[in-house]
Design brief:
Layout: E1 2-14, E2 19-26, E3 30-37, E4 56-62, E5 70-77, H1 90-104, H2 112-127, H3 135-147, E6 161-163, E7 168-170, E8 179-180, H4 182-191, H5 206-223, H6 233-239
Parallel strand pairs: 3-5
Antiparallel strand pairs: 1-2, 1-4, 2-3, 4-5, 6-7, 6-8
Helix pairs in contact: 1-3, 2-3, 3-5
């Protein structure tokens, strides 16, 4: 059955000599793998050129619930990005975030709030001129709200530990290994105060920023034990070196 939906490109891989599998987070169906012909021709209904990381697309899809890999009949940009595809700093950031989202958003169920958050974030990032180096930090923390484990920052005072299992700050060291010590917890609490509007006022060194990313990833790994290393993390590290 044919459906129209919007989608956000997360991941692409070769299927064979003729086709690629594109994993897309759709507004209508959640995350879906689609089989796409490797063609760059302008007359082709589905051109692989448009399937870059975090591209927001208008799709007409042939969706059958019993089929593991779906088909795309037509695809075109839903959001015209004016800076991300051409910016040597922004593009590696969205490649990292698309890979990150591909790893942690595996639910095939649709979530309109999650879709709106990601699509709005992409629009903000495309127009962003300041605070670019902090965008992925804010995105990763805010994304956890839609996945059900956004940290509870209430009652925080200096010297507390962040209990990653329970997503909250506590006065005493937890009796399990999944926690942040007070110094890291202080920075983690700072992240909860950041948003796209104010993130430009927060300055971190390269070392501190990479430490923050790894702590966020550690937090996600507590809730997604299958989360593996991200290939694009090394590129991101070199970017802000």
């Amino acid at each position: 059955m044919l459906h129209k939906t919007k989608g956000i490109v997360l991941h692409s891989l070769n299927y064979n000599d003729q086709y690629r599998i594109i994993h897309i987070y759709t507004e209508e169906f959640g995350r879906v793998p689609y089989l796409v012909l490797k063609s760059k021709g302008k007359k082709t209904a589905v051109s692989t050129v448009i399937f870059h990381p975090f591209a927001v697309l208008e799709l007409e899809v042939d969706h059958q619930h019993l089929r593991e890999i779906q088909r795309i009949r037509e695809a075109r940009p839903s959001m015209i990005l004016t800076s991300i595809p051409f910016d040597p700093v922004k593009m590696p950031v969205v490649m990292f975030l698309a890979e990150f989202m591909f790893k942690v958003v595996k639910d095939v169920q649709a979530n309109s709030l999650l879709f709106d958050f990601v699509s709005r974030s992409i629009a903000v990032f495309d127009l962003l001129e300041t605070g670019i180096a902090n965008f992925h930090l804010v995105f990763m923390i805010k994304l956890s709200r839609f996945l059900g484990f956004y940290p509870n920052g209430e009652g925080y005072t200096v010297g507390m530990f962040f209990d990653m299992q329970h997503g909250m700050f506590v006065r005493n060291q937890p009796n399990h290994p999944f926690f942040l010590p007070p110094d890291d917890s202080k920075v983690f609490r700072l992240l909860l105060r950041m948003n796209y509007e104010n993130m430009h006022i927060y300055a971190f060194s390269r070392h501190d920023r990479m430490n923050i990313i790894r702590k966020i990833l550690d937090y996600y790994k507590v809730h997604f034990s299958s989360l593996t290393e991200l290939k694009s993390l090394e590129v991101l590290q070199m970017l802000f070196d």
